[in-house]
Each structure stands twice: as C-alpha cells, then as structure tokens.
Amino acid sequence: MRLRICGMLHSAGEIEFAAIRDMLGVSDAVCSKHLKVLAENGYVTLDKRPSNRNGHDITWVSLTDEGAEAFASHIAALQLIAGMA
What we know:
Elements: H1 2-12, E1 14-16, H2 17-24, H3 28-40, E2 44-50, E3 57-63, H4 65-84
Antiparallel strand pairs: 1-3, 2-3
Helix pairs in contact: 1-4, 2-3
C-alpha cells in the first residue's frame, strides 16, 4: 500500500488525502495510518490547507526528496528481481 502511495505521488507530485484514499479504496483510518508511517520516516509531507468548499482543512500529500529516492530504490530492486525470474 505504501509503495502504491509513493508511486502515485511520484507521478502526480501532490495529491489530496481524499483522492489517495479513493484511489486505494480504503477507509480514512487505513489511509491515515499509512500516510502517518510514511511521514514519520520522512518520505512524505502532509500539508493542511483551508478549503473553499466547506470550511474544513484539506490535507495535501507530497513525496519528499528522501521519499523519491527510496521509491526509486525500491522500483530498481523490483526490476532486478523481475529480471531474474
């Protein structure tokens, strides 16, 4: 799940929390848990911004440089493994 999140962010740059949740098809709690772990490890940043829609803040998620490097490393390792099969 976390690799998928990093992949989405690597492609898009910045994504709203609700969009990540919807693309993964998980609950708020599950999505929040995975994003918290990624943030605690320095792979993503979580940025709350005011919403014009309903007055609630919207959380935007983006990949850090460290997260992008880790993602690239994981993808390279998977490609190496796939090449061995």
